[in-house]
Amino acid sequence: MPEGKATETVYSLIRDGKHDVCVEMLTAALEDDPTSRPALSLLGHCYYHLGDFDSAAEMYERLSVLKPDDNAVRLYHAQSLFKSGARQEARIVAQTIDAPNLEVNVARLLAHIAFEEDELDLCRQFLERCPSDDPDVVVDQACVELKDGNIDLAISQINDAKQVLGYQPDVAYDEALCYYRAKKFGPCLTVLSEIIERGVREHPELLVGAVTDGEEVRSVGNTPALRATALVEAFNLKAAVEFNMRNLTQAKEALTDMPPRSEEELDPVTLHNVALMHMDSDPADGFHKLNFLLSETDTVQAPPETFANLLLLYVEHNFHDLAAEVMNEHVGLVSKQLTTDTYEYLDACTTQIISKEDGYQKFDLAATKRGDELQKLAKKISDARLRRDGEKVKQLIVEYDDLLEQFIPSLMSQAKYFWDQEQYESVFKILKTYGEQCGSHEVYRLNVAHTYFMQSLRTCINDKYTEAISFYEPLVLQKAEQGTILQISAPVLANLCVAYIMTSRNEDAESVMRRVEKEEQQLLSQKNGHLDSTNMFHLTIINLVIGTLYCAKGNYEFGISRVIKSLEPFGEKLVPDTWFYAKRCFLSLSEGMAKRVVTAKDETVLEIFSFLEQAEKFGKDIEVTEVKTEVNTGDTTASVTSRTIANEARQLRRMFLKLREV
Questions:
Q1: For FRET with 546, which of 3, 228, 308, 530 sits at 20 to 30 Å CA-CA?
Q2: pLDDT value of residue 530
């Protein structure tokens, strides 16, 4: 640094936004003089703008000791503490500030603290001390109204502020959030598109969309420019909108379009959303991220939805014991962050660990209660339509849809009690009871279809297959027309194809499989030949299910052929999971041949030999299980060896060779 130019150099760097360079220079200066007031002040400023609020708070705290009467320093200290998540400490410091010229700043800071602590009445009291015509205060008031559920008033206040402030990314984000809470996803996406377009145009260095395009890019870091554009917030909200609209692919793309950062640099909201969006492909990593957010409360401000989402996902993956354990560890969060409906549902789920009957009774009570509420809302909607009150109808429909989303999990858990006991008639009776309220809900219709399908397998009555088709088909055809058939789970497509075949509609089944194959090929070309998606196994699963069904019915000739076809090309589709289900069909046939109750044509046996040879070739490095063996070398020691697909294929081939000699 040029002699005598220190002050000029530092301020020039700050003006140019090079706060990180300033930190290096000022840290060295502070080591030489730990009580340097200018160094502490400027370091606090730089750390604050770099987003390192803990370090900023430390600098301002040290400076406040040196300048105990400087209220501005105390204000900066309190603001840094608030940003770092130490809200109570920030409140204590802010309440010690007594300076008329800082009264508005202190009032707004205390209002923000009260807002984050959900003390909305206290927040309003502090905002009343601020100028009512200040647009920033108006935005604060809008945020309070939004959090209190007064969405229309919040939107009105934000529009008033926009007329004075013009375009500001953070205010635009607040507007989008209002539309999101009102479930007006169209206007919400419009506002978010503007935020993103401006951010891309004004800051191309943030590399928006580079990860989605498959480019190898470096992290852009959590720079002041990134925070100023509100791009992170916009992409997170866009992902939430797409997720709520059940567009999971677009939701994932919204997260990958975000400016690239390393996982260590991700903010809590992004980390939370990444965990949710990838639970289908990597649940272990998703649970790890959510548990991290929940456990690091001293250093990480987790989104309030984290606790409920972790518990609901544990239940969804049948980890009821883990859900109960987390609830016991965080008793305070149970009352603070779980709604009554969510708590009742989770309580019933965890009760099943001890007594399935008691859990069922709780689900029954919850379903009855919510069912009655849905009926009352339906009556109100009908009355509003008779009065031609369009706005009221829209409002009531939103309430109805929200209540229905809360009701479906309890109803399905109640039905699952009988499903697990294979009492499908009882399952159907429960679902039919609420057909009027839930008839249009996708999850409800799918489960009705599953029930008809299982009844068909039990009774071999084709009418039941026809009923199952009537529920499966509309959803599948809709997705097929949109070119998104792979968004439907493979078991649903497999069940529909089986139902088609059992009702002599083989051409319809082939049509579904051709559509699936076409979309898989398109996806494969988009991914440059890399099979890194579970969607690429849709056709495999469909053929496996059909083949297994035919084998179970005793038609091994067609069933085995279909199973082998499902694994082509073997180098891509032969994996531990697919092999597990395929080998069961071969074992079933070999058992029948050994008992002399089944015979296999020579063509079928030769096809099996040919396939097993290919399985040996492609499965020699694919481990399927571990076998414990004991080796005695004086002392008995246990060793573990892995068994591969090739090992098992060789054993099956040997088995069929022996059966041919019998």
A1: 530
A2: 47
